[in-house]
Amino acid sequence: MTEYGLTEEQVAEFKEAFLLFDKDSDGRITASELGTVMHSLGQRPTEAELRNMVTLVDTDGNGTIEFNEFLFMMSKKMKETDSEEELHEAFRVFDKNGDGFISASELRHVMTNLGEKLTDEEVEDMIKEADLDGDGLVNYDEFVTHPLTQLLPLRASEGLE
Questions:
Q1: What residues does the EF-hand domain cover (predicted)?
Q2: Predicted confidence (pLDDT) per residue in 3-56, tens digit
Q3: Which residues pair with 102 in a beta bridge?
Q4: The domain 8-80 is classified under which CATH number: 2.60.120.10, 1.50.10.10, 1.10.238.10, 3.10.105.10?
C-alpha cells in the first residue's frame, strides 16, 4: 500500500489516466479535465462533487491539479465507493426476497440469525425508526439514513448478568 492507502496497481492505473490528460507533460491537469479523468477510471462524480473536489485540491487556485493532489483525491473517492458497496451488500443481506424493501419479518429473520432475539415490539420499533415514508417497510435510501444494526434496542439487563 502507498501513503494514500492505494495499491501499487491503483497508483499505476491513476498515473496512466492522469498522463493521458496531461497534454504538456508538466505533471498537472486542468480542473475542467478532472471529470473526464475520473470517468475514465470508472468513477461517476456529479458536477457538485467535482466542484467540491477541485476546491479541496486546488488550494493555490491556479486551476490545475498536480498528480499527488489527484492521488489523494482519488483515494478519498475510492474509500467512499467502498463504503457505498458495503452498504448495498448489507441491505441485500436484510432484503431476503430481493424486492428492494426490508420487512419486519425479514428483519426479525436476519437478527435472529445474528443471535439477536428481538421481541415483535423491538422489531416494529426498529422498522418505525428507519421507515421515513411510513409504508411499514425500509427501502435502501431509508436504510442508508438509518442502518438497522445501529437501531438495536438497548437492554437494561445487558452488563448486569
A1: 9-44, 45-80, 82-117, 118-153
A2: 778 888 889 988 988 888 787 788 888 766 778 877 877 788 887 887 777 778
A3: 138
A4: 1.10.238.10
